[in-house]
Amino acid sequence: MNTQWFLTGTDTNIGKTITAIILLKKAANQGFKTAGYKPIASGSIKTIHGLKNNDTLLLKKNSTVNLSYQQINPFFFPHAGPPHIFNTKKKKINFNDLDHGLNIINQHANWIIIEGIGGWYTPISQCTFLSDWIKYKQIPVILVVGLKLGCINHAILTGKEIIQSNLKFSGWIANYISDKEKYGLDYINIIQKYIPVPFLGTIPYIYDMNNISEQKIILKLPE
């Protein structure tokens, strides 16, 4: 049976992709055939193959199964912004296509991280959120908390929403988004009191996303 999780965050730019890479590496070391799936992405960098989403490229690089860019990221919008703005008749995000993309990856991998975009309530249309698709699919959730001022409030609110969704809440991960953060342990201690799910571990500040050694990071794989 395939094993898959949805990776969401307390905000945008709080380390979902870094977390996904580390989890994929750790799962691969345990013998799993791993894949990252970024169903919706906005924002791009210039490459020799044109504009591409950097998160998608990193997930492709760190998956053990060979998948195309399009398979990992079926809905790509070059400009950074909330996806509901770009969800038009020309390129319409719908659950059927998200399902189709995940089904393709399920044929190749048996350990899958589905990386969200933004936070739990990122809209993909005028009336739906990406988390609605996760509820529909009943996919277990992992929450990434970017350690910064305000993260306690964001983490507790997001955690409560995930719990109320009746999905399996497999755990949360604390990510240092700055090497100057002084209160990280204090944030972690208080969040643990209010989110009654497994604390999977802490990711130190990563200086180079292209050179991540997961062996030095104490992080448990979700169950």
TrEMBL record:
What pathway, per the record?
Cofactor biosynthesis; biotin biosynthesis; biotin from 7,8-diaminononanoate: step 1/2
Q: Which GO terms describe its biological process?
A: biotin biosynthetic process
Question: Which residues does ATP bind?
Answer: 13-18, 55, 115-118, 204-206
Keywords of the record, alphabetical order, are: ATP-binding, Biotin biosynthesis, Cytoplasm, Ligase, Magnesium, Metal-binding, Nucleotide-binding
Which InterPro entries does the annotation name? DTB_synth_BioD, P-loop_NTPase
Q: Which reaction does it catalyse?
A: (7R,8S)-7,8-diammoniononanoate + CO2 + ATP = (4R,5S)-dethiobiotin + ADP + phosphate + 3 H(+)
UniProt cofactor(s): Mg(2+)
Where's it mainly located? cytoplasm
Q: Kindly list the places in or outside the cell where this protein is found, as annotated in its UniProt entry.
A: Cytoplasm
Parts forming coiled coils = none
Where is substrate bound in this sequence? Answer: 42
Q: Where is the active site?
A: 38
Q: Which residues bind Mg(2+)?
A: 17, 55, 115
Can you supply one Gene Ontology CC term for this chain's record? Answer: cytosol
Oxidoreductase keyword on record: no
User: What GO MF terms are annotated?
Assistant: ATP binding; dethiobiotin synthase activity; magnesium ion binding; protein homodimerization activity
Q: What class of enzyme is it?
A: ligase
HAMAP family found in the cross-reference section: BioD (MF_00336)
Summarizing the function annotation, the protein's role is: Catalyzes a mechanistically unusual reaction, the ATP-dependent insertion of CO2 between the N7 and N8 nitrogen atoms of 7,8-diaminopelargonic acid (DAPA, also called 7,8-diammoniononanoate) to form a ureido ring.
Quote the PANTHER family the UniProt record gives: DETHIOBIOTIN SYNTHETASE
According to the record's subunit comment, the protein's assembly and interactions are:
Homodimer.
Q: What is this protein called?
A: ATP-dependent dethiobiotin synthetase BioD
Q: What organism is the protein native to?
A: Buchnera aphidicola
The encoding gene? bioD
